[in-house]
């Protein structure tokens, strides 16, 4: 698939009185990306999302959607964007279905199938006729996501989408996002405080601090920067451990279930390890560097508290 | 913009308070008509059990009706301005959103007013004595004169709503805009000619004199109403275009 830039932000600033909420943001999102925005509370993630969707006005800089940065072009571009930013906002006395019907009419979507499909996608059909004010936080999040999905967007902007969801719900949403990305080629810009969750879906990471982007990495680059271990899968882990102790006494290791051995180090010796194990009669099925812990990297880069 | 209006219409026809408020107004009018009817039949000396008196009393209530407009407009607009962030994020311009909501609210108001006027005419003609042949014509003419002032009221409420969130605050500012200058100008009208002129051309003046057809030419409230409507529409739009969510 040919990648093209669908969102480009140049020198974006947003100030509130004298204080910078965003400072010199430069960002490109390619089609097919799942870009994770990572930062502490107040880093500027939500403000950036709001600028993209015009909920707030940038103080300086340009935003371009699908190659257009004029008002009319941006508005047209936003018709292909599904967004859920901060708490989902709906009419409290309307049911989930009525709320979606309101927005379906507003957006001129033909047929009511889009409502049913969106409710089904987020597993909320059972509560379709329940009033929004009676919803739990997790259900509100699901309805917010249903609205974002209803128009079959090409770009999804999700601010803490799994906030308030139970572990099962989080897994469902994660699976849904992956499916949308892989099967429907939906590009996703997402923020979450649960970094392990982001790591399992993201293809790019954007680290923000105090309104600035401090680093951008692809998933591969993150792996390169953080890998520390070598995992070897062999036919006989007992025999392999004897070889390791004899030939690589300086590398600590652990034997894991499934004939796996995890070496703490030896990143630069994978070829040698492979050769020696083979020479000593151990069949090596795979040998690879592992690691890439996003949370550890984030803490190293920006500091902050570890999240569960 | 048509889609925006369609969705707003979908919302307000499902707003229960809209109907409750209409029902309350109808019940109050019915209570007044029934009371006049009962007194008319029980006391031969009671001279107020007629259509004209009833209509004039409805018209005399115009300042109250105008003040109650804040409740009505609040009901139609809803205090859920934050929901608009979804609409903005989808690429609708703030101008379209503001104008569409205003038009639908005005349409809702006109429908509401039409139904209530119909009920008042029905009550007057069925329950009360027709003592004056042109009572109904006069009533309709005077109500028509109030229409631009009411439209200006709805537009003003919208304008204030663009910068304030709480209904109580909006209502207070709304009433201050319309009634405070009227009172100040009333106190000054004996001293200054311009104050007297402004006083007799302010919306509140027409509201307080709605039942007195001879006190102003019929076209005057239209001009005043249009000036207020245009001013507050433009101001509201300007403020709303700067609104962040």
Automatic annotation (TrEMBL), chain B:
<protein>
    <recommendedName>
        <fullName>ABC transporter permease</fullName>
    </recommendedName>
</protein>
<keyword id="KW-1133">Transmembrane helix</keyword>
<feature type="transmembrane region" description="Helical">
    <location>
        <begin position="20"/>
        <end position="39"/>
    </location>
</feature>
<feature type="transmembrane region" description="Helical">
    <location>
        <begin position="98"/>
        <end position="123"/>
    </location>
</feature>
<dbReference type="Pfam" id="PF12730">
    <property type="entry name" value="ABC2_membrane_4"/>
</dbReference>
<feature type="transmembrane region" description="Helical">
    <location>
        <begin position="222"/>
        <end position="240"/>
    </location>
</feature>
<keyword id="KW-0812">Transmembrane</keyword>
<feature type="transmembrane region" description="Helical">
    <location>
        <begin position="59"/>
        <end position="77"/>
    </location>
</feature>
<feature type="transmembrane region" description="Helical">
    <location>
        <begin position="143"/>
        <end position="163"/>
    </location>
</feature>
<feature type="transmembrane region" description="Helical">
    <location>
        <begin position="170"/>
        <end position="188"/>
    </location>
</feature>
<keyword id="KW-0472">Membrane</keyword>
